[in-house]
Specification:
The radius of gyration is 21 Å and the shape is globular. It has one domain. Helix 1 packs parallel to helix 8 and helix 12 packs antiparallel against helix 14. The protein has 17 helices and no strands. It has 443 residues and is an all-alpha fold.
């Protein structure tokens, strides 16, 4: 990377106008579980391991539905760039209806299959009751979480990342306060932590609906779902679901293998995974900017601007990834003791934090490329590229389990997955097939 990257660039102001608030909102998202991890970690190893299993399932399942935010951002940004704000609003409304229906269905399925899900995740007999408690309560927040995701995508498509930041900060402050009161004040333990998170999700969804309603009135858009917009959102969603599900299968498999390595290993993995996820969403701020900028630029017919801005965002991705790696290494001793008093878990975590740190520059580039291609409407290509990366990862991860190579080797297997993602997306980005202009891109 040339030192010229640090010089002022014409696209820097726009990139950071969107990326900085997006960074704040994104790091607030995993704080829900990070707060729960810190509080529950003081209750003992079994409750923490139970949170590791249930929390990973919830984060992963909700992550599958990130297409509600990503797909909506790209579609709304294209229409916004083309100057059709009413169509942008109606596409956002279609996303909200889709999110509500999916969220209700997800809650019903989660309650019905909670026990077999926990069993598949490999929880021990001592950990299973805790995992079931957190999962059954946490899944009640699914409709509100998915509605908030769709609304976030709409607001970002309008080139506004400040509103999601304000709502995320408010919801997390509420979550922290409720956790303290419910876990320690009312002595509800792990269940209190789960109820605090669900309550915060309900409040966040309400705040988003208020914001969206103002925009709908201003553009005279209809609140009835348009069948063609819902269909388009569902098609893009199906592609992005394959993409995200492939991603999360890799992480779910990693947790399931860690659980089979032992309670100490899965507890250490829970902390390392949440730190990695926290950093991933932090680095994803530039990818969020990419979704909005690329969608708007292509909608406005500015293919040259799209190409120039994406090159710049990739440069910043490398720089921020290196910064994240250095931060983890510097804070390694503190991070190892911040979430648990168990010496065995701390020792495991110290080793894994090296893998977490060294992955950051690679991950940053991967995330930015992902945001660029989502913004360009390349959902179909992303689906199959991510599936291919997962297929490369799975046999390596299973080999770690078969040979009992340990937690550090398991995290090493994740590098195969990330490198596979990089190869697939860079191949597409280097060509011109993703540069398609106009208010609507065929799905």
């Amino acid at each position: 990377m040339r030192l010229a990257v640090l010089r002022r660039h014409p696209h820097d102001r726009e990139i950071w106008r969107l990326a900085v608030p997006a960074f704040g909102a994104l790091i607030a998202e995993p704080v829900y579980v990070l707060v729960d991890t810190a509080i529950v970690g003081r209750l003992g190893t079994e409750p923490l391991a139970g949170l590791a299993v249930a929390g990973t399932v919830l984060v992963s399942v909700f992550g599958v539905f990130n297409f509600l935010a990503f797909g909506t951002t790209a579609a709304v940004a294209r229409r916004y760039g083309a100057g059709d704000e009413r169509a942008a609003a109606e596409h956002g409304i279609a996303g909200l209806w889709l999110a509500a229906g999916l969220g209700i269905g997800l809650t019903l399925l989660g309650l019905l299959f909670a026990a077999p899900i926990v069993d598949v995740m490999g929880a021990s007999d001592a950990v299973t009751p805790y995992a079931l408690t957190y999962l059954r309560i946490g899944i009640l927040g699914a409709p509100f979480m998915l509605v908030a995701l769709a609304a976030t995508g709409y607001v970002r498509g309008l080139q506004d990342t400040r509103t999601p930041l304000a709502i995320a900060v408010g919801a997390n402050v509420l979550n922290l306060a409720l956790d303290i009161v419910l876990v320690y004040g009312l002595d509800l333990g792990l269940a209190g932590s789960a109820w605090g998170t669900v309550t915060a999700q309900i409040v966040a969804a309400g705040a988003y609906l208020f914001v969206v309603s103002k925009s709908v009135r201003a553009t005279h858009a209809t609140v009835r779902p348009r069948r063609d917009y819902v269909r388009d959102a569902a098609i893009v969603g199906s592609h992005l679901t394959i993409r995200t599900a492939s991603l999360l299968v890799a992480f779910l498999l990693t947790t399931a293998i860690a659980a089979r390595l032992g309670d100490v290993e899965v507890a250490a993995h829970q902390i390392a995974w949440q730190l990695w996820y926290f950093l991933a969403l932090s680095l994803d701020a530039i990818a969020i900017a990419a979704q909005a900028i690329v969608g708007r630029s292509l909608g406005a017919g500015d293919s040259e601007g799209a190409r120039a801005s994406t090159r710049r965002m990739l440069e910043w991705g490398v720089i921020t990834g290196i910064g994240a790696a250095v931060g983890v290494l510097v804070l390694q001793p503190v991070l190892a003791t911040a979430f648990t008093d168990d010496q065995a878990v701390q020792n495991q975590l110290l080793d894994v934090l090296w893998a977490v740190a060294l992955m950051q520059p690679l991950a940053a580039v991967v995330f930015v490329l992902d945001g660029i291609l989502i913004g360009a409407g390349e959902s179909r290509y992303l689906a199959w590229a991510m599936a291919a990366a997962s297929l490369a990862f799975i046999p390596v991860a299973l080999l770690v389990l078969a040979t009992s190579a340990g937690l550090l080797a398991l995290w090493g297997a994740l590098y195969v997955f990330m490198i596979g993602r990089l190869i697939g997306m860079m191949w597409r980005y280097r060509g011109d097939a993703w540069i398609v202009t106009g208010a609507v891109r065929s799905t």
